[in-house]
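hiii so um. not sure if this is the right channel but i have a protein structure encoded as tokens and i wanna go backwards to a sequence. like what aa goes where. can anyone help
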């Protein structure tokens, strides 16, 4: 039977897109990750990843295996977390900052289970679309999406978010489907409302100037505007996945997708109380296998 180490390494390669990224996530060498995947393929007698000099691509069998393994690895992470929780007997309050969309989708379900296991713990969740100051807001920790600017914070990387470009079918039927980044100049793009926000999007092969008649500081408002056919939007995939699956939005320019966005958990320097450390550990364990 394949070892848990081999299985976790294989899923990490697919979820992170490369051997190097998987090694970084698991804190191991690239060589050890490569050996683990090769050993798994040899043990199963099937090719799981088609390798080229620059890319890796899972085979059909590899994709099916990974889908099954993610649920299994999540169950194992849950079991380990529950064992640790039982021993700690935590009490007190933890205040955590999250984004308005990512928090309810990924963080709150984990925190709900945490509260059920710890009846003497209370949580305060502050949701905002901006990066708040941990000290002034008296936050024990926060989930940060994007590049980290504060060097005084301790950070733990959780993963990365795929970003996509999309529009409503009606808009594309009326205005045409862009096939090159330059075509965005001829479209209405839905833009962020932020101080100093440049009217350009960073895509895989460089920057493109964009314009639009609608701006908003709300991610949900921007995505809703795209759904209503008001223009072409850009957002992390998780925000619009349901709309895409339902056919209300369609992906465009998939070969030119913007760079992924890192996701970190951050807290102020210094020793963490046990109750806060427990929240950090459970979020890290669960979100790292969530397929962000």
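sure thing!! here u go:
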């Amino acid at each position: 039977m394949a070892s848990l180490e081999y299985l976790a390494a294989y899923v990490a390669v697919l979820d992170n897109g490369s051997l190097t990224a998987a090694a970084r996530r698991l804190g191991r060498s690239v060589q050890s990750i490569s050996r683990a995947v090769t050993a798994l393929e040899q043990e199963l007698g099937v090719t799981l990843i088609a390798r080229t000099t620059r890319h890796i691509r899972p085979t059909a069998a590899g994709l099916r295996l990974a889908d099954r393994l993610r649920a299994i690895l999540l169950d194992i992470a849950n079991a380990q977390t529950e064992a640790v929780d039982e021993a700690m007997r935590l009490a007190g309050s933890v205040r955590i900052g999250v984004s308005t969309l990512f928090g309810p989708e990924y963080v709150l379900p984990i925190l709900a289970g945490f509260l059920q296991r710890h009846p003497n713990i209370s949580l305060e969740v502050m949701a905002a679309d901006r990066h708040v100051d941990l000290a002034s807001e008296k936050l024990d920790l926060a989930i940060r999406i994007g590049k980290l600017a504060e060097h005084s914070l301790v950070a733990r990387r959780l993963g990365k978010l795929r970003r996509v470009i999309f529009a409503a079918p009606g808009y594309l039927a009326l205005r045409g489907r862009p096939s090159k980044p330059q075509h965005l100049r001829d479209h209405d793009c839905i833009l962020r409302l932020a101080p100093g926000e440049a009217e350009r999007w960073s895509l895989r092969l460089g920057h493109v100037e964009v314009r639009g008649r609608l701006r908003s500081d709300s991610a949900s408002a921007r995505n809703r505007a795209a759904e209503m056919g008001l223009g072409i939007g850009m957002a992390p995939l998780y925000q619009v996945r349901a709309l895409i699956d339902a056919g209300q939005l369609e992906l465009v320019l998939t070969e030119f997708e913007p760079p992924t966005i890192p996701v970190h958990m951050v807290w102020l320097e210094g020793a963490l109380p046990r109750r806060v450390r427990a929240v950090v550990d459970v979020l890290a364990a669960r979100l790292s296998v969530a397929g962000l």
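oh and Residues 190 and 233 are 5 Å apart (CA to CA).
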